[in-house]
Amino acid sequence: MQSYRIMVIDDEKIVGDMAKMSLEQEGYVVETFLNAEPALARLKEQKFDVVVTDYKMKGIDGMEVLRTVKGLYPETKVIMITAFANLDTAIEALRGDVHDFFPKPVKIKELKASIRRALGRQ
Amino acid sequence: MSKGLVGRWKSMLGLSKERAGQDLSFELLFRSFREVIESNNRALEIITDMGEKLGGDYLFDIIYIKSAYSKLSDAVKRSMESFDALTRKKHLELHGVFDRIDQQIRQMVYSLHPARDEMVVFYEDITWDMARKVGGKNASLAELKNHLALRVPDAFVITTHAFDELITHNSLDTLIQSLENDAAVSESALTELRNLIMHAEIPPDLDAAIDSGIEKIKARCGERCFLAVRSSAEEEDGEFSFAGQFETVLNVPLEGKAVKDASKKVIASLFSPHSVAYQRQHGYHVGKLKMAVGCMVMVDAVSSGVMYSTAPNGDRDMLLINATWGLGKTVVEGQTDGDLYKVKKSTVPEIIEMKQGRKESMIVNLKEGGTDAVRTPEGMRGEPCLKRETALELSRLGVTLEKHSKRPQDIEWAVDKDERIYLLQSRPLRIQQDKEGEPGLSVPAKDSKHALMNNKGIAVQKGVGIGRVFILRQLDELENVPKGSVLVSKYDSSNFVRIMPYLSAIITDVGTPTSHMASLCREFRVPTIVNAADATQVLSHGQEVTVTVGDEENTTVYEGIVKELAGFVDAHSMQMEDIYEFRKKRYILRYISPLNLIDPFIDNFTTEGCKTLHDVLRFIHEKSVMELVDRARYGNALIKKHAAVKLDLPIPAGIIVIDIGGGLNLDARIDHASFEQLSSAPLRAIIKGMLYPGIWHADAVSLRVNDFLSSMMRMPDITSDVSDYVGYNVAVVSKEYVNLSLKFGYHFTMIDSYCSETARNNHIYFRFVGGATDITKRSRRIQLIADILKEYGFNLNTKGDLLIARLANVRKDDMEDMLDQMGRLIAYTRQLDAVLHDDSAVVRYAKNFLEGNYEF
After folding, report:
1. Distance separating alpha carbons of residues B290 and B284, to the nearest angstrom
2. Of these four, B58, B220, B647, B705, which has the most CB atoms within 10 Å of its CB?
3. ipTM score for this prediction
4. Considering only CB atoms, which chain A residues are within 8 Å of B575?
5. Which CATH number goes with the domain that contains B560?
6. Most B-contacting residue of A14, A26, A79, A84 (CB-CB within 10 A), to test interface
7. How many Å lie between the alpha carbon of B573 and the closest alpha carbon of chain A?
8. If you compute the radius of gyration of chain B from its CA atoms, what whole number of angstroms results?
9. B682 upstream amide cis, omega within 30 of 0
10. Tens of each residue's pLDDT in chain A, 122 residues
């Protein structure tokens, strides 16, 4: 069986490291990036089923990641996480066809559940 | 007894000449107290939240840590301000303590690395961020010494910074860098390099630093001790063990040249052909890796060896010890014919098998330094080199280390002639994963039909714990709890911290998920259920059980060992611990959540004893309660300034009530109140107990003649301090607070209690001093009260005829029940001493009281 591919973009190493470890336990193939540029470059050569991205990053931010991903692969689901949660960012993200939106710290169990929903494996 | 303790007792008895001024009004006093309590609560909530968020179940980032910590430090600062107002700056030195801890935490949170370029560092000064500087092996041993207080010999480290200095001072850097690019370095080039290191000149400041390290060891351990000079390569996160790759020089005399030569030998071993090959195989850039050197005091070992905290075949229940006479070198290096112990570790460790080795030769320390292999004396060869008790103690140490590091450990140890076990090394043991038992992050659900308890109580820390039930009736039994037990207790208590690292699980009948104890359980990752109602009834002492606390906060206790669940013991978050960033970020909790200040009666209960913010909060809380207790006791002079109301009761208790906010429900300003008008929850509960039918014995029990004389004799020292409002007892109350001072005859009782909806704030402080009758009877009465209070779960201290008891962190309804019992106890014991004619009466009357039989 082919594994689902998940990409995690966050400018703090710990977020990517912890997400990778937890999600690999679920059988996903996980790649992590500390900023969006190399992540988007990688996306051009490889499709991912779910992209988990930080909202606020230096350079390319989460909204731009979302637009690029949707431009490349409309069916890829994007989950946004952010430390600066407020209603406006949430609304903006949801308008932009984001699958889910979580304020940090994110409960790993909830992230896993959201990914399962995104992949339609309830 | 230390002078400090005497002083404290005196001040509690009111015998101290010094008395704080009485200018602080009760309103201000109480407001400050409330502010302390409120800030402390906020701080503890943040600590709890941080423990949860950094526990491995959440993705978090530094922004969370920064914001949580800034709230936490604000709350602690606010608490200190109110505390200063309350105590009128009695404990100003606490600010210095806070500043030090705060600075340590901020350094971590904001990655402020102080300019650390020491070349020699002692173990006790090694902190979280120094792993690269002191090398992996030293960093982990220092951690065990400093944070788990395990017995690790005294040691200093020659750091990687010193290594750099040595290399550049001798212009060896270019040579070493060239190794990186040269895939096939010749053996002769490596030999040349090692020779250059052996003959290198030590830079003067390093030379002086090593000499002063040696002097310090001499001052601590004496001239006659020796050092083990050992490698400790820099490594980021202990991914590879480097086991046996580098040199160790044993039994080096405490003398400059010898230590320096040995250190050079260790450093040179970084470039031995097999070590270079090992580094290449594991992806290290040869020439990049640096070497720190540990100089550790030699243990005069009677026996030593290696322990695997989990048998290498992955059998989680088994632990292996390999032991030999003398130094452990032969065992460590696998030239083993030592004794092999197989120990079952799941509950109380049990030696399953002991294979005796021939132990034909042994390594001994030579008097002038160095070691030698000698033939083992005939008589010793056939003897096991560990006593049974020592082997078991060692096993418990192995379990502790595995529990602490969340993974199996490979441990080097030594035992001296006094049977003291020294820890010489502990590193992760790589074992094959049993596919079936591959640990997941969630605890599997299991048929709960045959459970002893199902979904009772509140989940505090999830996980699986297997062990024998120990029902704790009284706190002083903590000493007897076998390691690996499932502790079952009526109340929770931060005193459990003493044994927490060794417990498999904790279940309490009452308690809250935000208590001190609960946050400690999270810190130690002990699966814990609180508020389980009747666990002490349902579970039986000695019964083997499996406790599961699952993802959905479902809690179950099964009878016996549930095999399917055994693989999940400790498995939770185990892999998160493998992430370096996670461990590093989590490290700040070390300075926040552990609690070192436990018992107010022991000597470290001082500002200097505060090592963490939790300690600071605990100190503030305890001293604030004491402040109230003391002030309320001297409060009689203030009565005239306050609304003092006489309490009309059907018993002649003669209580005056001073309301400082919501404690009385009076329509008009009148000078007496009835029981119905009492709105102070704790006072109401106490009075309810005192009014319990049959408890207040109206007839004074006749005193015998010598009792009477003894009473006369003792009168002055008991009454001199108590009250100038003769004949009256005083209660200072608010809606949720009471400080009640009672004098019946020659007994002086004081209860200070806070009783609110928030269990964490609640406390009962009970003090009893009593006279009349002779000392034997007085001590019998103290014994009786102590027996009863112990049964209720109080933390007790008695001294002569003074008794102090505390209970904290209890829910409001349980508080009210308890205060009701206290009221009964006060009434019951009022004249009891006169009937306590022999020791058996103590047991009898205590039993009667607990059974609700209040007849004399």
Report:
1. 11
2. B647
3. 0.90
4. 21, 25
5. 3.50.30.10
6. A14
7. 10
8. 31
9. no
10. 568 999 999 999 899 999 998 998 788 999 999 999 999 999 999 999 999 999 888 889 898 999 999 999 999 999 999 887 677 777 777 777 889 889 899 999 999 999 999 998 75
The residues, ordered by sequence, that sit 6+ positions from B123 with a Cβ below 8 Å of its Cβ are B138, B141, B142, B145, B146, B152, B154, B155, B156, B157
Residues B626 and B644 in one domain: no
Between chain A and chain B, the number of residue pairs with CB atoms below 8 A apart is 62
On whether the A5-118 domain is CATH 3.40.50.2300, my answer is yes
Residue where a domain stops, chosen among B274, B292, B310: B292
Residue B225 in tokens: 């001790």
Are B521 and B624 contained in the same domain? no
Residue range(s) defining the domain that contains residue B200: 126-292
Write out chain A residues lying below 8 Å of B579, CB-based. Answer: 14, 17-18, 21
User: How far B487 CA lies from chain A's nearest CA (Å)?
Assistant: 29
What CATH number is given to the structural domain containing B333?
3.30.470.20
Is B63 in contact with A18 (Cβ distance < 8 A)?
no
Count the domains in chain B.
Answer: 5
Query: Angle at Cα B361 formed by Cα B356 and Cα B363, nearest 5°?
Result: 110
**Residue A24, min C-alpha distance to chain B (Å):** 11
Question: Which residue's structure tokens are 């022991």?
Answer: B602
- b/e sequence B754-773, b meaning 16+ C-beta within 10 Å: bbbebbbbbbbbbbbbbbbb
Chain A residue at shortest CA distance from B58 = A107
Chain A residue with CA closest to B49: the answer is A105
Is residue B177 in some structural domain? Answer: yes
Kindly report the CATH number assigned to the domain that includes residue B190.
3.30.1490.20
- Given B602, B630, B658, the domain boundary residue is B630
